[in-house]
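User: For my dataset I need records formatted as: sequence, then structure tokens, nothing else. Please produce one.
Assistant:
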Amino acid sequence: MKRYHFSLEPVLRARRAQEEAARQSLAAANHHLRRAQSRRDAALDAYRIVTSSALRGPGDRDAFFDERSRQLRLAEAVEEASKLVVQCEEETESCYSAWVLAGQRVASLERLDERRRSEWSYSEARAEAASVDDIVNARWDRQPSSGVRPK
């Protein structure tokens, strides 16, 4: 009895490697997204602290402009960090889509392999049954004839 061999095994191995690469890309994209979100949150916290402790009432003109300049820089940092988060979210979504597609490709080849293996098992069982039938028939034909044989 010969062993089963899936003719698309090299393709399946390549697809599994592609799926693993897509999974690693997704993990890296998620890591970058978390880092960008934490940077944005830190920038936002710094901005809130500065704006809540802003100078109130009459004060020095130079101190007012310095404080205002600091608030604007922090607001720009929050805006840049927010843009980076959006970019990282888009990249993560793209990586997720690629990973799902790679998984679907692997799954379809695995289903094909399963189906082919089942067909192979069925044909091997039929061949074995035919072989057994041939052996039984050959033994029957070799028996000495004692009269009437059942038909």
